[in-house]
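Can anyone check this?
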Amino acid sequence: MKLRHSFIIVSSFLLFLFFLFSACAQNSPVLLVEISGTIDQASVEMLTESLQEAEDQHAQAIILELDTPGGGLQQTLDIAELIQQSTIPIIGYVSPKGASAWSAGTFILMSTHLATMANHTIIGSCQPVEIGVEGTRYINESKVINALVEWIQERASMYGRNETVVAEFVTKNRNVNASEALHLGVIEVVAPTIDRLLEKIDGITITTTSGNVTLTTQNVEKIRYNPSLKIQFLKFFSNPILTSLLLIVGILSLIFGISAPGFGAEVFGVIAILLSLIGSGFSIPALSIIFIIIGCFLLIIELFVTPGFGVIGIGGILSLIIGSIFLVPSYPNREWLISRDYMLSAIVIILIVVAILAVFFGFLLYKILQIRTKKTKVGTFIGSIGKTIDRVTPEKTGYIRFKGEYWDARSEETIEPNTKVIIVGKDESTLIVKSLTKH
């Protein structure tokens, strides 16, 4: 009797553990990852990082919330490869209401294990775009088109989707809304919200590289993925409009800085150009090293050549910080698979801003050249008033500001920074000064 009683207790305990572990398995969370804006290297790094977080959180699935005009072709292929190799089911979800996943966004959606859309969203427009001096144009070369058609049809075939329609996304720039995409067999589910989506996909079995996975998403915990600081920086500077503007502003600032040294424009110009190169797809590790070297060089100048702390020192610190943040793997220059309307708007914005900046910097350079063409007579220096920028001593010269310009100066007395001085002489390009208060 006691043996039977013990057996019942042990059996009940084991049954309790079974249900407990089953409940824990069913409560595995889903990770929500938002991919919006242009598809670039930051998007690749974001998915890589989110896959690692999903493993750490023991998530049963990742939901990619897509709202994008498209982006780089190579980055799109990299994302598709990450999805295909993932052991965790990845669900593509075009959202929110009114969103679109054009071009690269459609390619990514077709690569996911489960393709879903919110009501009143759109996918399609996958014909590649070439960007040149004359603007944008659709690429019609059969070699490129056939390769992309084959690629997207193969992805559709893997998940039992309509191969004919997905081919027309590329060949005819076809667009479909959510209800039409579901009716044509391009996607599997239409749901107005994340919660409704999780209800609809509950119990669906998905095949990944690790085998079949059955989703248990009814009332499941949702975890929102937040990109790291490195990825946020990379995403910000990868914007095609921003990278173009940084390059132009950097070049103009560099020219202005060389023409009128002392205002820090040349420092800003170098930093802006390097940031533009990062956003455009140049090797990040190499540029990180350049940033760090420039940062050290600027700080040495600030400490030993121009004592004090000003624009040069701040530029050095910024260069060191940026160089440290961007120590991430390199990636190639991008080819565009993006909505033509988006790129046309981007080019218009860039041209307008560049024209305004060009006029502004041109005006500044004109004024500087006007000032420089005016020959200053030696006699006009004597008795004029300036203000020290650095500490001037009998042993060491320092800079003073005179008529809006920086001049090297020396004195027979020690004069502290930010002190008014009177010019008593000139030795070639060095002014001889005395403290105004002692004169």
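Reply from J.R.: I decoded it. The chain has three domains: 26-229, 232-373, 378-438.
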